[in-house]
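From the pipeline queue, job 12 of 40. The input is one protein chain; the requested action is below.

Action: predict structure.
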Amino acid sequence: MTAMESLTIDDLASGGIITNYYCSSKCAHCLYASSPQWEKRYMNPASAARIFRTIRSLGCDAVHIGGGEPFLNIPALEEILKTAHEEKVAIEYVETNSSWFHDEESATRTLLALKKHGLTTLLISISPFHNEYIPFRKVRGVIGACERADIMVFPWTRDFYKDLSALDDDKVHSLSEYAAKFGKNYLRDIPVRYPLNLRGRAIETYRTVFTLKPLAEILENRGCRELASTSHFHIDLFERYIPGLCSGFTIALDDLDEELDFREYPIITMMHTDGIGAFLDYAKREYGFIPEEAYLSKCHLCLAIRKFMVLEKNLRPAELSPHDYYRFL
């Protein structure tokens, strides 16, 4: 690998921390394969402090908090907010699916307590994917509690508010119900209305919706330069950096700000330098992977290879972690 082709993460632009992977939902589009199946582990203050110091040292002084569902452990979330303040890292917003809502009065008390430690804005998930698990009544309730607590609301996304309002907001509703209500192409049209990453669990959801591309066309892609992107990075509770929204790939916090060693990160560096064709050749040669004839994208093929390595060959390389990500897709 030449110096020009090397991968170094040394200038963070904008991103967030993943406090937990366990979630009250198992959304069909989830980039990080969150679900109730995950072990109930949450970022601790010591890890948060190390992460915030690293983020600041690499030029980023504000992040968001996401999951999983961060509000499933409110005392732990409070500690993360305190730690961010101590380390002089601003919290732009905290994400929530609103599953924790019981009534507006208790929700308001929760938000006021968190506000004391730096909560200013709540990104509230509003989508048919979330509505498969969370009644819209809870979402409305959290919005109301934000108004009472003077917490800003970042609706993600406002465009679906009318859709969810058209169905009984005391109940959850399947994607098939939305298709019955709004038309058979409802699922296909969501990415036009919603900045959806067709990675993670979304690949399985959309592989039968969109036309697949022949393998030969997929292999025309060269190096995956998106692995070097820091425009929307994430660092999880295990102190692992997720490069370029490529969930299931991680880099140790201590390996940031220096050239990645290809001996420690053979797959990530191979993908960055030579692309999906080289990774496919490697998987075929070393592990007997047999590709299908067509995929949604190079990301679909990449995930298929990684799932094969972790689940079928029982490999546990650190760069393909957390390993439960592959189990819970």
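Job complete. The chain is about 40% helix and 10% strand.
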